[in-house]
Design the sequence.
């Protein structure tokens, strides 16, 4: 399955990159549901090889009826370190059913986070261990090809 | 000469979302990429979409600040 990236608007131009006013992002459409239940919520998800985990906003968990903060807690943070370090938070992990582009369904252990800038992030554990992705930036827009392993 | 090739629908969606409310869930019609609902919670966005006849929208989180994240 090949899918073009989505163009995300930015608040201010990227001065270091010809004042670009948007950023191309690799996004897939997923459905998520509790284990052994239909995947009820359909949302845009960011493909993020830099994330060790699949993450959802906590309100996705609440909407699914998951008691999200009863999950397995894992402290997480951004890449910055030292005095300027970004805020740390806790992700609570639960097993969920994930349907990718209505083509494939996998069970993943995903973290639910109170404040997340995306509805869903697809990371290494759960997503990239089940799917191979090829990121092609030779085209405009860039595209991602995804294969079930 | 300007290109006349049709742009991907997803690009058009982005331009709509740039004008959308922040810090809210957005419900988007999967067929024509219209914004059909917004809400501070998922249920409100889904209910607005349903009122507009879209029962299975795609939900997109519109962050408070669209900055570059690494």
Sequence:
């Amino acid at each position: 399955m090949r899918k073009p990236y989505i163009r995300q608007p930015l608040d201010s131009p990227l001065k270091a990159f010809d004042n670009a006013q948007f950023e191309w992002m690799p996004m897939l459409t997923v459905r998520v549901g509790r284990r052994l239940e239909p995947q009820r919520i359909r949302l845009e998800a960011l493909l993020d090889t830099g994330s060790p985990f699949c993450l959802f906003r906590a309100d996705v968990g609440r909407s699914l009826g998951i008691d999200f903060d009863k999950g397995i807690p894992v402290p997480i943070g951004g890449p910055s370190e030292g005095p300027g370090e970004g805020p740390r938070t806790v992700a609570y992990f639960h097993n969920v059913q994930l349907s990718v582009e209505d083509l494939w369904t996998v069970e993943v252990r995903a973290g639910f986070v109170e404040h997340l800038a995306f509805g869903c992030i697809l990371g290494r554990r759960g997503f990239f261990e089940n799917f191979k992705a090829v990121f092609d930036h030779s085209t405009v827009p860039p595209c991602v090809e995804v294969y079930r392993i | 000469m300007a290109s006349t090739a049709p742009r991907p629908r997803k690009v058009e969606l982005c331009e709509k979302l740039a004008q959308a409310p922040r810090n809210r869930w957005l419900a988007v019609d999967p067929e024509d990429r219209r914004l059909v609902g917004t809400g501070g919670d998922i249920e409100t966005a889904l209910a607005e979409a349903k009122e507009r006849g879209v029962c299975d929208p795609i939900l997109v989180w519109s962050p408070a600040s669209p900055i570059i994240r690494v």
